[in-house]
Amino acid sequence: KNIHLETKMYEGIEWIGKMSTDEDLVIIHISAHGISIIGEKRTGYGIKLDKDYSYSDVNKFIDVLDKRYRHLILIVDACYSGGFIEACQKDYRWIITACEENEYEYGNKMKLLLRRFSPDELSKTLFTHNMIKALKNLKTKYGPKYGMVPLGEAFINSKATLLQRLKAGGVKRPHPRAYFPYNMNLFIRTAK
């Protein structure tokens, strides 16, 4: 199920828990503003949704789901999102981020939006656009025969395309990152 949630993060995670089964592969895609200042101490990184969330806040919400599912994929399209890897990595949790912890994510910084993206707008951010395109291309390659696509290969292809496009435009950053705990090619089922 592909649902766009305009809600508080904990309500969204709670909804996922209620609407899915133990056998489901859960993919959480967060598109938000990355922020470099958290809390009164004004240190750290995180994301801005209905409020400011540190990486550890997001990790606590997702921990509730980890106890239930065999595989969970977290995709974060935000400035400074690379920090989610260190804060959120665990067995059976695959994490893909738009950039390093200390970098701006090109598409989000240029738009300067102070709200979450709609599904249509989301596909237009440079990082997410390239990831969706890579998944579609691999669906054409692997889907008819296997009905699945390798997530790791999709990430590698989307990263290469993104970096090539940015370099052609004279942009040296961002550098998307990924954490795959065991097998880089976790296969995900394609829609029919």
UniProtKB/TrEMBL annotation:
<dbReference type="Pfam" id="PF01650">
    <property type="entry name" value="Peptidase_C13"/>
</dbReference>
<protein>
    <recommendedName>
        <fullName>Caspase family p20 domain-containing protein</fullName>
    </recommendedName>
</protein>
<dbReference type="GO" id="GO:0008233">
    <property type="term" value="F:peptidase activity"/>
</dbReference>
<dbReference type="InterPro" id="IPR001096">
    <property type="entry name" value="Peptidase_C13"/>
</dbReference>
<dbReference type="GO" id="GO:0006508">
    <property type="term" value="P:proteolysis"/>
</dbReference>
